[in-house]
Amino acid sequence: MEQFLGDLLPALQREGIEPAALVHAHNEAERREKPFPLWRVPSWGRLLYAPVSPAYPQWLAKMIQSFHPDLLHIHLPNPSAFWTLALPAVRRIPWIIHWHADVVASEIDTRLALAYRLYRPLEQALLRHSAKIITTSPPYRDSSEPLKTWRAKTEVVPLGIDPGRLPPPDAADLAWAEAQWQSGILRALCLGRLTYYKGHRVLLEAVARCKDIHLICVGGGELLEELEHQIRQRSLQDRVRLAGQLPERQRNALLASCDVLVLPSVERTEAFGLVLLEAMAYGKPVIATRVPGSGMGWVVENGETGLLVKPDDAAALAQAFDTVREYPGRRGQMGEAGRARLEQRFHIRACARHLARIYQTIRG
């Protein structure tokens, strides 16, 4: 969500929209100067994957008083957004809801099912009072149980990225990235938090079934120790590296130098997969899972821009790795097709233009 907003707000400026943002402050990387007003609310950590920010209502009221917005664009899921229901100054402003994902009652982390009983009434109140609801793909719109009641005011606006944010790495960063990979074998990259729905356990099992593949996973998370244990148990130390969090330039250098990006998520919590678009920007083929109701299977054209496999299926994922390894020519064709699809459908300018039209309709 953060990367998307970082691309979207400047694109909205180019459409004649004057944006501002109220976000959770998580790390120093967010301290870079922005060409628009930006309020960063301190966070005290996370509870069930959501930021805890007791000061959020005060910051929201301050933003309203200072910026005087004509419209609020609220991004969910985010429990802090529920404060919009309690502040009279906010309720007087029309708002749209950008529905990035359902709060999925996970079969993997069962705590979420209990928490959602408390979350749902407030979620539905936000949806009830919204002027418009934005979803990111037709499959997610059609499969979302919380949005069923509000289908008449729901519109699909695909996520997008600015390819200009992903320039070719300079010589030093590219040399660093090349030194991270083993030579002569398939280079597979996985970008994303080491968390319950991302499918890293299945990914490691798939690599164990393959030969001639080197996997680098970029990202931190609560499954780090468990995955390190799995790597040792499966004797994958020479072929798998958990790189942790990396600076953006090194992360992008790995993306520019890999052979394939893999997104092995196993639940609809992975609603779209913005990292798929980043891979397309670098002309890389992708392997993703065909999770029912997720946008991943809509973003990726199976056999054209990448390969789709059954979720939570290590054998199917291993077979996909074998395919992209054995046919390098097809790998290049899929990467170039992905680059073209990004330009045609998922460029941030298309997203910004669509949203600008919605804003004008709501304002009248």
UniProtKB/TrEMBL annotation:
Residues 188-340 form the Glycosyl transferase family domain. The keyword Glycosyltransferase applies. It comes from Methylomarinovum caldicuralii. It is an enzyme of class 2 (transferase). GO terms for molecular function: glycosyltransferase activity. This is N-acetyl-alpha-D-glucosaminyl-diphospho-ditrans, octacis-undecaprenol 3-alpha-mannosyltransferase/rhamnosyltransferase. Keywords: Glycosyltransferase, Transferase. Its EC number is 2.4.1.348. Residues 2-160 form the Glycosyltransferase subfamily 4-like N-terminal domain. PANTHER family: SULFOQUINOVOSYL TRANSFERASE SQD2.
